[in-house]
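Project standup — Tuesday

K.O.: blocked on the structure for the chain from last sprint. Re-posting the sequence here as requested.
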Amino acid sequence: MIKVVLAVQQCRICSMPFSWNNIFWSLWGYKTIVCEKCGTKHRITASGRLVVTFLIVFPMIIFMNFLSPFDNALLTLVFGIFIALIGSLLTPFLVRFKVKWTQPK
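H.V.: unblocked you, prediction finished:
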């Protein structure tokens, strides 16, 4: 069973919650998140990347290619970008991160 939790994730080591802003900007480029308290690095999971795709890219493409009621290409593009923006605002609540373990040298 899939469990959906609408809360920002917290550090797996010290349980300090990540800020929404920190998670949001880390998704653009899939950057690691560093815990502000203990310094542990977290990276997005594979399922988290799928969530990003299904909430941002997929709805925008479906709307722009199949569901657009507009004959104007610019208006369709603007609404497609608006749909992507709404999806991107929801992603920090749904993506999950895991601890990035580094190999000792």
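K.O.: great, moving the ticket to review. The longest helix spans residues 46-67. The mean pLDDT is 82.
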